[in-house]
Specification:
The protein is an all-alpha fold and 292 residues long. The protein has two domains: 155 residues, no CATH class; 118 residues, no CATH class. The chain has ten helices and two strands. Strands 1-2 form a two-stranded parallel ribbon. α2 packs antiparallel against α4. The longest helix is centred in the C-terminal third of the chain and has 32 residues. The protein starts with 23 loop residues before the first helix and ends with a helix. The structure holds fe (ii) ion (2 copies). One fe (ii) ion (FE2) binds next to α3, α4 and α7.
């Protein structure tokens, strides 16, 4: 018989899903290594709720391990960027291929957020709170896209995809300052630039459901890049490094791809880039465009 003093359920009492450790770093690892998307999303949401309920400790039980391959669907075939077929929106598979490519970015972004939590230790509590929030928002982005993909009769893992995002995670795994510069402030920030032209194409095809989703994602991504900017500035200050010069040195040192796009200046300014950084990025992009 139920106790008459049984408490009214709150969000802390109705958690569902697989059991998680009571340690944040083990929990982050579990989320990171979950392979199927349904499992990763459920674990991520449960972990974020458990964190907010104050039930995850910051006492590490094991040191961070290198992760060459994070959890991802077994059927997902990773190829080099040049081998990913280019399909325009007007071809039969075009909308599904675009949705799959965007879902792949969000799936990687969940892994990258959990990897930041898992790998970098002894940072302020707010660092972990920020990246857990990012992981949860990336999970929402992924599900919005996956739901649209399912409406077209497809699912994440069916199309080929490239591994550039995780390769950058491996290259920056040794140093949180480098990670903050290269992942949120370089790769995620390029997403801010890339979204307006995609939105324009979607609008011209009257794909309004997708337009709404991408506009929501863009708003959240400004926040993610801002979180990267905040921690990059914090780490530079702690180490007595000049932030702007350090940022550009790290791009030169670690980034091998081609860099050019039309900067989304309002979004980048809102995400913590200084006007000087934007000027230097523009110069860099112009040089790349001329040499290609
Ligand atoms: Fe996202
Ligand atoms: Fe993001």
């Amino acid at each position: 018989m139920a106790s008459p003093t049984h408490p009214t359920p709150t969000h802390q009492h109705i958690l569902v899903g697989p059991p998680l450790s009571n340690n944040l770093f083990d929990t982050a690892y579990q989320c990171l290594m979950a392979a199927e998307f349904a499992e990763k999303i459920l674990l991520t949401q449960t972990a974020a709720q458990t964190w907010r309920a104050g039930q995850l400790s910051l006492t590490a039980t094991t040191p961070p391990q290198p992760i060459l391959t994070p959890g991802q669907p077994a059927r997902l075939r990773l190829v080099s960027a040049s081998e990913v077929p280019r399909r325009t929106l007007t071809t039969p598979l075009g909308p599904a291929a675009l949705l799959h490519a965007l879902a792949h970015i969000e799936f990687n972004a969940i892994n990258l957020a959990w990897d930041a939590v898992y790998r970098f230790r002894e940072l302020p509590l707010e660092f972990y709170a920020d990246w857990i929030q990012v992981a949860e928002e990336e999970a929402t982005h992924f599900m919005l896209l996956q739901t649209q993909l399912a409406k077209l009769g497809h699912t994440y893992g069916e199309f080929t995809a490239h591994n550039g995002l995780w390769e950058m995670a491996i290259d920056t795994a040794h140093e949180v300052l480098v990670r903050m510069a290269l992942v949120p402030r370089l790769l995620e920030a390029r997403g801010l630039d890339a979204t307006p032209p995609i939105l324009a194409k979607l609008k011209s095809q009257q794909l309004t459901a997708l337009v709404d989703i991408l506009e929501l994602i863009l708003r959240d991504e400004i926040g993610h890049v801002a979180i990267g900017s905040r921690w990059f500035a914090y780490l530079c200050e702690q180490r007595g490094l000049p932030p702007t010069d350090t940022f550009f040195q790290l791009i030169q040192q670690y980034f091998r791809g081609r860099l050019y796009s039309q900067l989304n200046k309002p979004a980048r300014l809102a995400a913590g880039f200084s006007p000087e950084e934007l000027e230097r990025l523009e110069e860099m992009f112009e040089l790349t465009a001329k040499s290609s």
